Amino acid sequence: MTHSEHDQPTISPPADDEPSLAVVADTENNNTVAEGWLEAPATPEIEQSADDAPEKSKQMVMPNADDVRLQELNLAIELHPDAAVNYLLRGEWFLAKNQQYLAKDDFAAALDLAETQLETSVWGFTDQWVRDRALAYLEDIEL
After folding, report:
1. Residue 48 lies in a domain
2. How far is CA 1 from the centre of its chain?
């Protein structure tokens, strides 16, 4: 059987100015593979000087990398709510921002999911790593 460009999933791009639904579709079998809401890309803002004098330089303000990372982690959890590693990574992000209560909730979710997946997994190496790491963070937070 030969593969053509029609055999590959297609990705619908997000709109430029508003959140939109991104859909990954398998066109050969007419199935939706994955879908989720994507935030509109952040547009850099231009800050002007107080007097808006044309000779003054203008500075572009780029989106905060921390905010972008949190949005990416939230989207990963929304698209893959059963992936324990997504909760673990977001918990680490919250912990780095001294938001221990939110971190604790994510570590508990990661631990619960990883333990469930570890029981049903054939290999389980990744599940064991996520479980151990989430448990260690939870023990540190409890101290």
Report:
1. no
2. 36
Q: Do 92 and 102 touch, CB atoms closer than 8 A?
A: no
Q: Is the pTM value of this prediction over 0.90?
A: no
Domain range for 101 is 64-142
For every residue of 53-105, DSSP letters joined together read -TTS--EEEPPPHHHHHHHHHHHHHHH-TT-HHHHHHHHHHHHHTT-HHHHHH
- Specify if 56 maps to a domain: no
Residue range 25-84, pLDDT digits in tens: 444 544 444 444 444 445 445 455 555 555 545 566 677 888 899 999 999 999 999 999
Q: Is residue 55 part of a domain?
A: no
Backbone angles phi and psi of 11, in degrees to 5: -120, 125
Residue 52 lies in a domain: no
Residue 53 phi, psi dihedral angles, 5° rounding:
-65, 135
